[in-house]
Design brief:
This protein is α/β, with parallel strands linked by helices. It contains four helices and twelve strands. Strands 3-2-1-6-9-11-12 form a seven-stranded mixed sheet. A three-stranded mixed sheet has the order 8-7-10, with no helix packed on it. The chain has a two-stranded antiparallel ribbon with strand order 4-5. The chain is globular, with a radius of gyration of 15 Å.
Length: about 170
């Protein structure tokens, strides 16, 4: 898979999406490993308030305003905001873009492990905020992924081909 081309196509889809266009605050991520890179989306919409997570002890996340100059590698090599970066209240989010290595059609996702996103999504006071997985089409599975009781499902999946609404089978 050409990750750069896939990322460009996914960003193009997101850039024309009415929900993203209407959102003022979007929680996203800085790509790590084989994750889809959304960096050009941040550049296309500088007027939006972009939130990027920083990993904390006990597998928690703190959200910060996206400032590329303030990104530093954590102990695993993932670029994340400096602890001194301006924080962002995640309850202000209108849309959450979630990284994934794979997703299934029912909104289950496979990440790098650790449960950071599951803990965060479970803690949201407003569960109606859209949560979209971002994956290449080849990583959208037709068979259900295994699910643990603490796993949080996504509301939609964006690939380079199209957007898929998810549903419980």
């Amino acid at each position: 898979m050409d990750r750069s081309l896939i990322s460009q196509k996914i960003v193009a889809h997101l850039a024309s999406c009415p929900q993203l266009l209407a959102a003022k605050t979007i929680l996203a991520y800085v790509a790590f490993g084989s994750e889809v890179d959304l960096g050009s989306l941040f550049v296309l919409f500088p007027e939006k308030q972009w939130g990027i997570p920083r990993c904390l002890p006990r597998r928690q996340m703190q959200w910060h305003r996206y400032q590329p100059a303030e990104l530093i590698p954590n102990r695993r090599g993932l670029l994340e905001p400096s602890p001194h970066s301006k924080t962002l209240d995640p309850t202000e989010a209108d849309l959450i873009l979630v990284p994934a290595l794979a997703c299934d059609r029912w909104g289950r996702r496979l990440g790098y492990g650790g449960g950071y996103y599951d803990r965060f999504l479970a803690s949201l006071p407003d569960p109606s905020v859209p949560k979209w997985g971002i994956v290449p089409q080849a990583c959208l599975l037709e068979q259900p992924l295994p699910q643990d009781p603490w796993d949080q499902r996504l509301d939609g999946i964006q690939t380079e081909e199209r957007f898929y609404e998810t549903g419980i089978p």
